[in-house]
Design a protein that fits this description.
Blueprint lengths: L2 H32 L1 H34 L5 H11 L5 E5 L5 E5 L2 E5 L4 H13 L2 E5 L5 H4 L5 E4 L6 E6 L3 H20 L10 H21 L6 E5 L6 H8 L4 E5 L7 H4 L5 H8 L4 E4 L2 H14 L3 E3 L4 E4 L2 E7 L17 H12 L6 E8 L6 H14 L7 E8 L6 H21 L7 E4 L5 H10 L2 E4 L8 H9 L6 E5 L12 E3 L4 H12 L3 H17 L2 H32 L7 H7 L4
Parallel strand pairs: 1-4, 1-7, 4-6, 7-8, 8-9, 9-12, 13-14, 13-16, 14-15, 16-17, 17-18
Antiparallel strand pairs: 2-3, 5-6, 10-11, 11-12
Helix pairs in contact: 2-19, 3-4, 3-19, 6-7, 7-8, 12-15, 13-14, 13-17
The structure holds 6-O-phosphono-beta-D-fructofuranose (F6P).
């Protein structure tokens, strides 16, 4: 073929392609003009984008308003977030331990605030939100104090929220609380070398009690969309149970103790059920990123799920859960502080109350008598100190406040006995003429009495073998408005990630701890001030209102995103002809998802 022939052929080909394209174009536009759904589609897009823009505008506006509120976190900030970002949301707190216990005492009733980090953190939050707190009514006079709906208004001297008590039978309490929660999950989650015990009957009780609390949440909810703040390892199954009954609820679960690595976690016979239960939450919070990562690893290993590490989100069973670190904290400023005597007066009172020598340095430990707290390790350190520095015998006294806890369990009874034996031994070896180097008081103390002790101390020892956060460390810092006192803090407590000016110790290393004790005993007032000032700033800025506020803000964002998704989904539905199933649903019907 000649060159001219080839050119002609190319020309004809191009003309025919052009004509076909024109034909297709006209055919499509004719189809569009005749097609009603296409018109609806365009209108639907407009509806969707306008609604989406509205929600986004609101979303951005709220983000800004909260950034402004970041300056100081207070009960007002929290109320503002609730009012502006989660309007009309009812806050329901669920925990095992109640914030106020009524016990019979003689002919009357005594009010007890339990020794619990959870309670000291959640109480100011619930007060600020005027919410409902659902908890196990374990006090001997609890039933006497409630109304016909098992409710009592608290705090008793200035009621600002409702405490709803849940009653448990002796078997339920044994199986759910003492058994599964405290002989199973507690040692499983703490590296303290106490073997977890798993019994099928305990698991059954745990599940039944979680269901009982789910029923109570549903009964207390005023509408379909409450914000439920589920607290701790007693309620791993509750988030899923709430989600099934109140799909629109925001469920924020906070795990107050560490989460083990997936290898350790794997020994739990109900590991999948626990993960499935927790993933009913909208948000799961841990004190540290490390524990949040351990949780995500466990999910990765044991459940079919999609993990978006960059977004800290887990998609499982058609629902997304955020997994974040929210370091818990305490009330700041502490209302109680204004009612306490000055430091000199506290020192005098505490020395008088416990018969301590006036000239000895006072070292304290304050906690529940628990094997995770490293109480025996403190005694080791003291022994080591006296061995290395005999000149300090008689010049330092160690006061241990040990609130009785879970005392019917063998591991706790054993610890109690060991502590008493060790204290007696030290007192025998190093005590003289009324001087006892160790004073151990295994009794409950009121919050006021505990704060007087914090203010009286020269050194506070927080030597947990493993701890989610440990709020005693933060309480000690908050109590010291005189900017004096030294904090010895275990590297295995979450608080050591924030309170860097403490003397950070390894409780397993008695030599190191005795070195830190000796450093603390000789630290200048100036150095104490520098360290304490910095730690006080940290606790002030990262107070408990910020902790709760961050979770509520994330919850508000989730809810807005949910609204956005719903708006878009509705618009898609609008845009779709009645007889056409959207692709997503078609895939579902066909079992493709
Ligand atoms: O540390 C975990 C924790 O649940 C805390 O949140 C709480 O302060 C403490 O244990 C309470 O222990 P219990 O209620 O068993 O006395």
């Amino acid at each position: 073929m000649t060159d001219q022939g080839i050119d002609l052929l190319w020309g004809l080909l191009l003309v025919s392609l052009g004509l076909s394209a024109l034909a297709v174009f006209f055919s499509i536009s004719r189809h569009r003009r005749n097609s009603t759904p296409a018109t609806v589609h365009v209108a639907g897009e407009d509806v969707a984008s306008e609604a989406a823009r509205k929600v986004l505008r609101e979303f951005e506006k709220n983000g800004q308003s909260v950034d402004a509120a970041l300056v100081t976190w207070s009960p007002e900030t929290l109320r503002k977030i609730l009012h502006e970002d989660l309007p009309e949301a009812q806050v329901i707190v669920v925990s095992n331990r109640e914030p106020y216990i009524h016990n019979t005492k003689g002919d009357g009733v005594e009010l007890v605030v339990p020794a619990s980090g959870l309670v000291s953190a959640m109480e100011p939050i619930t007060r600020a939100c005027a919410g409902t707190w659902i908890a196990y009514g374990g006090g001997t006079a609890d039933r006497q104090m409630v109304d016909g709906d098992d409710r009592v208004q608290v705090p008793p001297d200035n009621p600002s929220y409702t405490l709803r008590r849940v009653w448990l039978s002796e078997e339920e309490y044994q199986g759910y609380y003492l058994g599964f929660a405290n002989e199973g999950l507690w040692p499983l989650c703490h590296i303290a070398f106490t073997r977890p015990i798993f019994r099928e009957s305990d698991w059954d009780a745990y599940e039944a009690v979680n269901r009982k609390f789910a029923d109570t949440v549903v009964a207390e909810a005023r509408n379909e969309r409450p914000i439920v703040l589920v607290q701790d390892y007693h309620f791993a199954l509750l988030p899923r149970m709430i989600r099934e009954r109140l799909p629109e609820a925001i469920v924020i679960t906070f795990w107050h103790i560490p989460w083990p690595n997936s290898e350790v976690y794997s020994i739990c016979p109900w590991r999948e059920r626990i993960l499935d239960g927790l993933l009913g939450s909208s948000i799961i919070g841990f004190h540290t990123q490390f524990h949040a990562n351990n949780f995500t690893e466990s999910v990765d290993r044991f459940l079919e799920s999609r993990i978006e590490r960059a977004d800290a989100a887990i998609s499982y069973g058609g629902q997304t859960t955020l997994v974040h670190a929210y370091p818990i904290s305490i009330e700041w400023p502490l209302q109680l502080l204004a009612k306490l005597p000055d430091v000199a007066e506290c020192r005098a009172r505490v020395r008088d109350r416990f018969g301590l020598p006036a000239d000895a340095k006072l070292c304290i430990g304050v906690e529940r008598l628990d094997y995770t707290k490293g109480i025996l390790d403190r005694f080791h350190a003291l022994e080591e100190l006296f061995t290395r520095h005999p000149e300090l015998i008689g010049k330092v006294v160690f006061l241990q406040i040990a609130a009785p806890s879970r005392g019917t369990l063998p591991a706790y009874r054993q610890l109690h006995d060991e502590c008493m034996r060790y204290a007696d031994d030290l007192n025998l070896r190093y005590g003289a003429d009324g001087y006892r180097p160790v004073v151990i008081v295994a009794e409950h103390h009121s919050q006021k009495a505990v704060y007087e002790i914090y203010r009286a101390a020269d050194i506070c020892m927080v030597t947990s073998l493993h701890d989610g956060m440990n709020l005693v460390a933060k309480e000690f810092v908050s109590a010291r408005d005189d900017e004096q006192g030294v904090l010895l803090l275990s590297t295995f407590a979450g608080a050591s990630r924030e309170l860097l000016e403490a003397l950070i110790v390894n409780p397993y290393d008695a030599a190191m701890m005795s070195g830190a004790l000796s450093q603390a005993l000789t630290m200048s007032a100036e150095e104490q001030r520098e360290r304490m000032r910095r730690m006080r700033e940290i606790v002030r800025d990262n107070n408990v209102y910020r902790w709760a506020g961050s979770m509520l803000l994330d919850a508000a964002r989730l809810r807005k995103r949910g609204e956005l998704d719903r708006v878009t989904a509705n618009a898609e539905r609008l845009a779709t002809p009645d007889n056409v199933v959207p692709i997503f649903e078609r895939k579902q019907v066909a079992g493709l998802r």
